[in-house]
Amino acid sequence: MIPQSFITDLLNRVDIVDVVGRYVQLKKGGANYMGLCPFHNEKSPSFTVSPTKQFYHCFGCGAHGTSIGFLIEYSGMGFVDAVKDLAQGVGMVVPEQDDKIPPAQRAAQQAQSLAMTDALNQACDFYRAQLRQAPNAIAYLKGRGLTGEVAARFGMGYAPAGWDNLRQVFKDYEAVALVESGLVIDRVDEDGGNKKRYDRFRERVMFPIRNTKGQVIGFGGRVMDGGEPKYLNSPETPLFNKGQELYGLFEARQPIRDAGYVLVTEGYMDVVALAQLGFPQAVATLGTACTSTHVQKLLRQTDHVIFSFDGDKAGRRAARRALEACLPQMSDDKTIKFLFLPQEHDPDSYVREFGGDAFAREIDEAMPLSSFLLREVTQEHDLDTPEGRAHAQFEAKPLLQAMAPTALRLQIVRGLASMTQSTPAEIEALFELSKPVSVARKAPPRQGRPEPVGLELQIMRMLVAHPAIALDLDEAALRAFDHFGAEPADRLRWLVEQAQALGANASFAALSQQLKEASTEFDHLVAEIASEPESDIDTDRVWITSAVRQIKMDALKQELNQLFSSGLTPDQVSARYREITAQQDLLMREAANDTPAKFA
């Protein structure tokens, strides 16, 4: 777990204008910067980036967040990867509480990673240059209907014939980084004597594989003459893990947002060809089955995923593995579908034969995950017999157990129950599903917190906008919040604790990031503050000082009015009366001096 103090320091060092500016064209507009929102289609800029708040906000779609949030939403990175990316840019090393690697070893690992990245970039440039002078490769790509423009967009290249062409690129062809990055292979004689080094990729059209930051982390090479293997991938390396990466995701990020869905195909050429044919929102797995990590990455980009598989047995097996990878990630606001083309077609050939409109209709009519699951567990069994229905339920059990207790799971349970002559409750009991949702019971009344209003809301707004003010609030000030009632007081005290934990360098961006990780309760308030001009911290500090003082005055006045009917003895009443009036006098003197000091 990354310490919150590091996150605060990081957000104070990075400049969100630089971070967002890498991906969005920004223009100065008053105190902020403006641009077209990368998260929805718009023609007039409503996307603002505030250098003072270190926060972005879109007035069109409501997207907002810090530099960390932007990288997560735009690039599809996880939280840790986004933090590491930002930290690397400002020369910070991310501490990890469970990281027991000695500093020297970690520095060596970082040097190794940089060396591999540099080697892969140089190789990519070499392959691209070779493509321009390889008529056979150019003819092959033209024969597949590709233009130079789309080849350039995906950074495609060509690895020429020959065993050691990369000697032209690297002065030290024996460098360890060339083996570690998968560019070359070392073959050693059986007796361990002579070592022969040669290029891994030869006579292949080259597809650079990029991560979500656009860095080349590996290659895929395709033969052009029917040789084997048809596709050759880079091996697993510290930079490249096939179970975590998707080909074309870096290039498809904006098209996915424009289209509203991502299309997952089975190969490099499908992705590039579909981009050529008007479907740039396509990605592909890298010669491996779809994994849960793949699905997580896809669902960070869009709520609508469509898997496209060939209609043969291999395609059906791939679809089944994708189904299993999707189930743990499913929620009621996500849509996952499965598209099966005729056996003689892949997406590329289908579009070329029937046209883009026909393929778009196939996408629209793709099979929902629920239908595919029920088809998978029932189609091999005779549902007219008890044994067939039992077999179908047996197959469905692990699939439904993998799902969270959502409304979608309930719908699938009901569908299976109907097909197997059971009730939903019987299915849930038989499958031992967690938190059954079909049992008819009245939900308990919701005990949600009341929305903050009035003075409480204003205090919250100022604390979120300027969390450093929270350091001025001591225990007496926090007790004063009881005047609002138990739940509002708890909410205010929790907010103060979160702000105080960030220390004197607390900022709106740092607190917003911390609140986002802890709760969604403050999302709306953060969005409002992000969309407004920045307030003056000194003015807000004085206001909160006065507000808390007034709350204390009101509480003392209320206690004084009830003192004589409180049931205390006369001596106790007299003692408490003197205490209350002394506190009132002190507060009145503070108000006269109007000193924004700590509250007594």
Automatic annotation (TrEMBL):
The keyword Zinc-finger applies. Its cofactor is Zn(2+). A zinc finger (CHC2-type) spans 37-61. Binds 1 zinc ion per monomer. Pfam families: DnaB_bind, DnaG_DnaB_bind, DNAG_N, Toprim_2, Zn_ribbon_DnaG. Coiled coil: none annotated. The keyword Thylakoid does not apply. Its EC number is 2.7.7.101. InterPro entries: DNA_primase_core_N_sf, DNA_primase_DnaB-bd, DNA_primase_DnaG, DNA_primase_DnaG_DnaB-bd_dom, DNA_primase_Znf_CHC2, DnaG_bac, DNAG_N, DnaG_primase. Keywords: DNA replication, DNA-binding, DNA-directed RNA polymerase, Magnesium, Metal-binding, Nucleotidyltransferase, Primosome, Transcription, Transferase, Zinc, Zinc-finger. PROSITE patterns: TOPRIM. Residues 260-342 form the Toprim domain. It catalyses: ssDNA + n NTP = ssDNA/pppN(pN)n-1 hybrid + (n-1) diphosphate. HAMAP family: DNA_primase_DnaG. Belongs to the DnaG primase family. PANTHER family: DNA PRIMASE. RNA polymerase that catalyzes the synthesis of short RNA molecules used as primers for DNA polymerase during DNA replication. Contains an N-terminal zinc-binding domain, a central core domain that contains the primase activity, and a C-terminal DnaB-binding domain. Monomer. Interacts with DnaB. This is DNA primase. It comes from Massilia aerilata.
